[in-house]
Every structure is written in structure tokens, then in C-alpha cells.
Specification:
459 residues; alpha/beta; five-stranded mixed β-sheet; four-stranded mixed β-sheet; 15 helices; globular
Length: 459
């Protein structure tokens, strides 16, 4: 394969996507000939910093390759760790990134999104002294003492558990419609109703933990699809502090924590494995990811790998939200299945919902249809190449694979191919990671119980 003058060998190619160009293969080949040092850093909340020292070619002949490599690197850091300010010490890369990450640039979506999340204008800074990395992971989870409430806010249902000294004494699941409701009072009332329902089954409330889809910084809702229909003019006052208000209004000054649901899934995995350093990947409506580090801490990173590039093929499918191509959401979600099914000769009902289309392919797989098998084998190939890339970003020990795409025979076949690709193409990291699926112990821990364990007690 070849991209911008960079040639690289790919032995395992997805049958239904033969033009797939794994980003790690491109990067490794690029760095074999790149000799000009470049330093980059991305600043996020509270002065935390991701820092990277790498190389480019710095020649006119390789300018396109250099720009592609640096753009994909910055994009990866932004959506893995988050940030609103990019530092770079190379003048040509500064000029390029300043144009790309701007209101009129190719990454206008990223530019605007990060500015809103971090409540700071996005900027690219030219400097000779690129800052060093600075992290501040938080020790969260595993606190089971006392009377706790765990609340899990999903897009179609909300779950709550009452947990006393590690034992779930009450659990409730209620259907609700947050994504299509514009009045934030609906969301607030639903959260409070769940909290009160759990509290009725305990003598007191010592702590509350919340697991919710979206991006949360200092317990505030910076971006979340649950509140998609809430008007912008109400978001600041009614949504950003919605969990903080609901908990304090209901229980007063009790310890609490609000965390992205992907991180809570990874925490549940760590609790069930009785070990740490877990990356959780849920392949469902999108690619939802969470991470618990080697010390059992939640990093505070965004972990929005749905927007992290995995394919440098210039004809890769575009994500309709960000307008970028080759990003994880089109490979590790129901979108990936829907993309590949027609290429396998499977005709999907155009009027069906994405979830219904996924079910149709799953039904074919359960019936041992070879066309459906090709879909899952291709996704397994994607995943093998991509997990090697993710490993370089996280250094995880375990990968917990979740979500509807991983269910049934399709998930089993996907996992089988993924392991083969890792073993044969990336032996340098294959033996360092363990791929695992949810087991009965994980299901017993559950999302809402893991959420209940998030905040430390009063001590």
C-alpha cells in the first residue's frame, strides 16, 4: 500500500474493504524515513498536558505526508485526551495546523467542539519551548462501604441501584426519552425520581455516583447526546450542573461523582477482573470507550475514540457529524456493520432503523450465512489493526469488548479474526494485552453498581 509516498505492507486486509489503510502501519513506515524533530503538546483542563516528541521529513517532496501525519496525530490526541490549545515548535506545521484547526478549516468541527467543552477559544501556539506532559488521574471507584446510590443514564432507559456495603438491595430500570425532549426539567425530574426511588430502600445516603453518556469535567455536563434537544440558551443554566443540582437538592452535601459511562464500564470490568489497566470498548450506536489506568484511576481523558482516525485511505467513509473520514465510529459500531453489509451482498431495508439493520445482519449470522460472516470477519480485521494502535496510546493490559455488535456468533467470529491479526501482524504487542468479553461476574457488578462505587465516602 502507498499513501503520500509512504509505502507499507499490510498482510491482513478486510475482505469487504480491501483499501483499508491501518493508521499504525502508515505511521510506522512514515517514521522510518522522517528525521526532522518536531515537538507537540495539547493542553486541556486544569493545566493538564499531553506532550509528544516525534519526527517529520521537512522537505517539499514529503510535505503532504508530513501534514497528514501531524494532522492525524493532533486529532488523535485531541479526541483521546482532550484539549483546547495546541503547542508546536515547527513553523511550517504551525502554519498548517493554524489553518486546519480554525472556523474555516477542515477541522472546524473539532475546533468548535473543543472550545465549547473546555470553555476556552481553541488556539494553535507557536513556541520553542513545548510544555512537558502533565496528568492528574483521579482515584475513583471500588468504594463500597456505607449506603450508596448508583445512577446510570442511558438514551432509552435510566437505571438506579441502592447499594449497602457492596450488596445491591434495590435496582430499578425505567424507560425515558431524554434525547427527544427539549425541556431540561424533564431530565432533572427523571434524575431526582430515580435518586429518591433508591433512597427509599436505605436508612441513609452516604454517597452518589452517576454514570452518563457524554463528556464531564469536574462533574459538569460539557457535551452529551442525552440533552441533544435542549436549546442552547437553556444549556448553560439548566444542563451543565444538572447532576450536581439534582444530588444536592435531594440529599444536601453528600459526596458524589459524575463520570462518562464508558469509564464506568471500564471500572466495572476492572472490578470484575479484580485487576486494573482496562480499556473498555462498547460497539453499539457508536464506539463508546472508557479507561481505568494501572493504578485503578480514571484519567479524566475524553476517550472519544469514535472520532480518532484509524484509516488513512483517502476514500474512507465520512462521519456525517464531524465531516472527517476514516474515524472509529464507521468501523466499530452498528454503522460499521451497515457499511459492510451491502458489500457482502446483503440487501438491507432502507426504511429500517440502524438498530433494525444490525439485527437483520445478526439474524443472518446466527443462521450461519457466509455473507454475514464476512461482515464480522472484516470488522475483526479492522479491530486487530486498531487495537495495536490503541495500545500505543494507552498501554492497557485488558480490552473489554462490549455492545450489540459483539453479541452472538458475530462477536465470536469478530474476536477470532481480531486475535489472528494481532498475533500475526503485531507480535510486539499482541502478547501484552488480553481480550475479554463480559462474563457473569461483570453482569453482577453492573453499570449502576460500579457507578455507586465512584465517590469516596466522608472518611
Amino acid at each position: 500500500m502507498e499513501r503520500f509516498g509512504i509505502s507499507f505492507q499490510v498482510d491482513h486486509v478486510p475482505e469487504l474493504d480491501p483499501d483499508f489503510m491501518p493508521i499504525l502501519k502508515f505511521n510506522r513506515a512514515f517514521l522510518e524515513t522522517a528525521k526532522k524533530p518536531v515537538a507537540l503538546a495539547v493542553e486541556r483542563a486544569d493545566g493538564q498536558m499531553a506532550s509528544c516528541r516525534t519526527f517529520i521529513h521537512g522537505t517539499p517532496e514529503m510535505a503532504q505526508a508530513d501534514r497528514c501525519y501531524v494532522d492525524r496525530l493532533v486529532k488523535t490526541i485531541l479526541w483521546t485526551q482532550g484539549g483546547f490549545r495546541v503547542y508546536v515548535d515547527d513553523p511550517e506545521m504551525y502554519e498548517y495546523l493554524s489553518g486546519v484547526y480554525s472556523q474555516a478549516g477542515q477541522r472546524a468541527f473539532d475546533w468548535d467542539f473543543m472550545a465549547n467543552v473546555y470553555e476556552h477559544p481553541f488556539e494553535v501556539v507557536r513556541t520553542d519551548a513545548v510544555p512537558e506532559a502533565k496528568d492528574a488521574p483521579k482515584a475513583m471507584g471500588g468504594h463500597l462501604e456505607g449506603c450508596r446510590i448508583g445512577f446510570d443514564a442511558g438514551g432509552s432507559d435510566r437505571k438506579v441501584s441502592a447499594v449497602i456495603d457492596g450488596e445491591t438491595v434495590f435496582s430499578e430500570e425505567v424507560v425515558w426519552y431524554p434525547k427527544i425532549t427539549a425541556d431540561p426539567q424533564y431530565h432533572y425530574d427523571g434524575i431526582v425520581a430515580a435518586l429518591k426511588s433508591a433512597a427509599e430502600h436505605m436508612p441513609r445516603v452516604d454517597a452518589v455516583g452517576v454514570s452518563s453518556a457524554g463528556i464531564y469535567i469536574n462533574d459538569r455536563t460539557m457535551s452529551a447526546s442525552l440533552f441533544l434537544k435542549v436549546p442552547r440558551e437553556l444549556y448553560e443554566d439548566k444542563v451543565k450542573n444538572i447532576y450536581i443540582r439534582a444530588i444536592r437538592d435531594t440529599f444536601g452535601d453528600v459526596p458524589f461523582a459524575v463520570v462518562n459511562d464508558g469509564d464506568v464500564s471500564a471500572l466495572a470490568g476492572a472490578m470484575s477482573l479484580e485487576d486494573n489497566n482496562v480499556l473498555g470498548i462498547a460497539m453499539g450506536t457508536s464506539e463508546a470507550v472508557g479507561y481505568v489506568d494501572g493504578q485503578g484511576r480514571i484519567t479524566g481523558w475524553l476517550n472519544e475514540l469514535a472520532f480518532v482516525p484509524v484509516d488513512v485511505n483517502p476514500e474512507a467513509m465520512e462521519d456525517e457529524w464531524s465531516g472527517d473520514i476514516g474515524c472509529g465510529v464507521k468501523y466499530f459500531s452498528q454503522d460499521g456493520v451497515i457499511k459492510l453489509a451491502p458489500r457482502a451482498g446483503i440487501a438491507l431495508d432502507e426504511n429500517a432503523s440502524p438498530a433494525e439493520k444490525l439485527k437483520a445482519v445478526q439474524a443472518l449470522m446466527e443462521a450461519d450465512d457466509p455473507r454475514a460472516a464476512k461482515v464480522y470477519e472484516s470488522i475483526g480485521c479492522y479491530l486487530g489493526h486498531t487495537l495495536a494502535y490503541y495500545y500505543g496510546l494507552y498501554g492497557f493490559r485488558y480490552v473489554l469488548l462490549l455492545g450489540r455488535v459483539m453479541s452472538g456468533k458475530g462477536g465470536d467470529r469478530l474476536l477470532e479474526v481480531c486475535r489472528k491479526v494481532l498475533d500475526e501482524e503485531y507480535p510486539d504487542c499482541a502478547g501484552k494485552m488480553q481480550l475479554t468479553l463480559p462474563d457473569e461476574k461483570f453482569r453482577r457488578v453492573g453499570q449502576s453498581m460500579a457507578a455507586a462505587s465512584l465517590p469516596a465516602g466522608r472518611g
